[in-house]
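Researcher: We plan to redesign the surface later, but first we want a full-length starting point. Tokens attached.
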């Protein structure tokens, strides 16, 4: 597995990270912004004060997820678009979506299933985009 690090396509990691960050900005900043406030039960409340961790944290997490996928793609020696799509679906559904719902199922989320459903398209899309970039670039 450690040898996989030497086979990482760093250009693909950079491109997938930038695209995923851009998609996150579009999804959470424009497309799902109002619904996000609603599923968190914050309608009519002032927006929380922006902290550094709120801006930087998601970027770091995206890069970590992309890098982790890059290690696995290299270790598994994936080489076709079909491989990439299957891998993206396995990671997207098996890890990212499952964890999104698991995190939301707690008393701090008034609408956990709606929260998971709102986040699911972003995480599944970025998993597929990341996998395709890592395999095809």
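Model: Full-length starting sequence:
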């Amino acid at each position: 597995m450690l040898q996989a690090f030497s086979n990482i396509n760093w250009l693909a990691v950079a491109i997938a990270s930038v695209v995923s960050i851009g998609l996150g900005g579009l999804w959470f900043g424009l497309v799902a912004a109002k619904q996000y406030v609603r599923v968190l039960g914050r309608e009519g409340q002032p927006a929380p004060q922006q902290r550094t961790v709120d801006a930087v944290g998601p970027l770091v997490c995206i890069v970590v997820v992309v890098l982790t996928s890059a290690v696995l793609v290299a270790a598994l020696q994936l080489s076709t678009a079909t491989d990439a799509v299957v891998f993206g679906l396995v990671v997207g559904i098996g890890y990212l979506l499952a964890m999104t719902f698991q995190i939301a199922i707690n008393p701090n989320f008034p609408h956990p299933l709606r929260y998971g459903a709102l986040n699911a398209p972003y995480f599944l899309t970025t998993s597929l985009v990341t996998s395709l970039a890592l395999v095809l670039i």
